[in-house]
Amino acid sequence: MRFSTGRVTRRNDLSHCAAKLEARGIEKRNLMRRATKLEARGIEKRNLMRHRSRYGHNNTSNGYSICSPASSLFASNNSCILTPEVTNGPYYVSGEYVRRDIGEEQTGVAITLDYQVVDVDTCEPVPNVFVEIWHCNATGVYSGVGGGQGGLDTTWLRGLQETDEDGVVQFESIFPGHYTGRATHIHVMVHANATLLSNNTIGHDNTAMHVGQAFFDQSLISEVEATSPYILNEQELTENADDDILAEEASTDGVDPLMSYMLLGSSVSDGLFAWLSFGVNTTYANQAGAAALYYEGGGVTNEDAGGGLTDPLDYVLTDPIPRSSPRSAVPSFL
């Protein structure tokens, strides 16, 4: 794999992909996948439209739903798109497990997270890449790191999944809490050219084609924060309007970093289903700095840690990531 350095202009808005995604049946499969999940929670397909007002975040009163056509979801404005690269923060840990359920013993509002990765150049879903997410618990604490956090040997609310043929992954987690200085968010990273190892990780290959953060409606956050154990969080709450990274993401035309969602019952305590599609440039990659590295025997602080890209310049893949050839190997000891 060859890398070149230098800035490139990358389009992450998917508005131009609406017709192609709809024609290929991806819109219909998205609906069926989400409806199947909701049916498992007792919400019948015939009732989905009855609950329309509970679908989607309410930033512009567009009434988006999982029943909305791709032409609405991927409109030029307010589309469900995650932003171009931002910082991966001070709490990224490499070596976490590939798994769907990342909640472990953490308590809070149950949430199913549905992410879809789309190539912004071809408008095709991106299969066989690993999507990694991590976020704090209900009281604003991260696992995997020390310094007043959960500790190096903890792994809760962290994990990876490999995208399917539709570029989709799903995670079972809890709604994230808040911590001082940041609005409620979930970190999202897409790993390029990674290999699943026998220990059910991708090792410490931190090559990423996308690093971003996803957010939620302030009204939803307020509703969750009024429940236990979130109400026990004594850290200062930063609202969306005061978060610099959210402002950076939202400043990009066509980008909407807030997740669409549905309540699975009469209140947030009954659980949430949230979804987000986002565009990536498959010829772009960078090395993400990790605060710690997790091994079978526990976590180790990374003395060379950084809270973002390891090089201030973008790394651009001069050879696009192959879709059918074997991925690059990672040493077995990682």
Which percent bin holds the helix content? 10-25%
Please tally the β strands and state the result.
14
* Distinct helical segment count: 5
| Major sheet size, sense and barrel closure | 7 strands, antiparallel
Whole-number mean pLDDT: 76
Category from helices, strands and their pairing? alpha+beta
N-to-C span: 20 Å
How large is the radius of gyration?
19 Å
- The portion of residues forming beta strands comes to 15-25%
Specify the overall morphology.
globular
Give unreliable regions as ranges.
1-9, 43-56, 58-84, 307-334
Helix-strand sequence:
EHHHEEEEEEEHHEEEEEE
The neighbouring-strand order within the major sheet is 1-14-11-8-7-4-5
Structure described in brief:
The chain is α+β, with helices and mostly antiparallel strands. Helices cover 12% and strands 23% of the residues.
Give an overview of the whole structure.
By secondary structure, this protein is α+β, with helices and mostly antiparallel strands. The protein is about 10% helix and about 25% strand. It contains five helices and 14 strands. The strands form three sheets. It has a seven-stranded antiparallel sheet with strand order 1-14-11-8-7-4-5. A hairpin with a 2-residue loop joins strand 12 (about 290-295) and strand 13 (about 300). The longest helix has 15 residues, at about 25-40. The chain is globular, with a radius of gyration of 19 Å. The two termini are about 20 Å apart. Residues about 1-10, about 45-55, about 60-85 and about 305-334 have low confidence and may be disordered.
